[in-house]
Structure formats: structure tokens, C-alpha cells
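Problem: given the chain below (162 residues), write out its structure.
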Amino acid sequence: MSRGVIAVYPGTFDPITLGHEDIVRRAAGLFDQLIIAVAVAHHKKTMFTLDERLALARDTATRFDNVSVAPFDGLVRDFVLAHGGKAMVRGVRGVTDFDYEAQLAGMNRHLAPDVETVFLTPAATLQSVSSTLIREISQLGGDVAPYVSPLVLQALQAKKKA
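Solution.
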């Protein structure tokens, strides 16, 4: 049985936003299988633990029949190859993202020549949304409800009380 074309959407997802979900929806329509790969992120101080980020990403994945979630540590190239991936999905909000992502794509092409990087842009209403801004606005008491799922909003509110 063929698994079809597998794509991997890697990121820290701290937390996953509706912008991420929009990219997941678009990628799920393009590939037979999509894996949301949640980075362990030893190099970053995350608001949410790995288990929390995985749970929030799994909530998003349940909306799609062909999307799963898994953690990864180390080079994303190794994760993609270990899972039979043929494409890596990257969200790009604007030129600043594109410049950085183009450099990553070039390096990934060198590290894994058989894996293509596919850039997707979120809906125009979500282009200003980033996990960093969501965390900051939430911690300062701003309303982030239009930019995250109800479960993520609940998790952010719980972190604010802690």
C-alpha cells in the first residue's frame, strides 16, 4: 500500500495559531499526508512544554483526515527522511520571512536534495499573526481570540494566571 506524497510542516508552534492552521489546511489539500512536526526546541525558552504544544497541535490535526503530529529533535532533515517525506512545508508571512526561509530552503536542499521546500502564505487576515506576538499580547491582557483556536486561548489564559 502506497502512502502517497508525505509532507512535513516543522515548527516550534508555541503556540499553534490560526495562521498555522491555515497553512495546515492548505498543505493538507496538496499532499496525501501531512505531519506537523513539533520541535523539542532546546535552543528556545518556550511558554508551553513540548507535551502541551503537541496536544494543541493534535487538536488542530483532528480537523483533517490526513494530518498527524509528532515531536522532533535535531535536524528536521533527519525527521523528514525518517518519515518518508518528499516535501517540507514552510509558512511565509512576508518578505522578512521569505528571506530567512529561502536561506533555510537552500541549506535543506543541500542536506536533503530529494526533499522539496514548499512555501505557503496564510490568508491575508492572518499574515500579521505570529506565535511571539500572540504570547506577548496575551500576557499583557490583550485579546488574541481572533487568532487562535478556543483550546489555545484557554491554554494561554491558564498560563497568564499561573
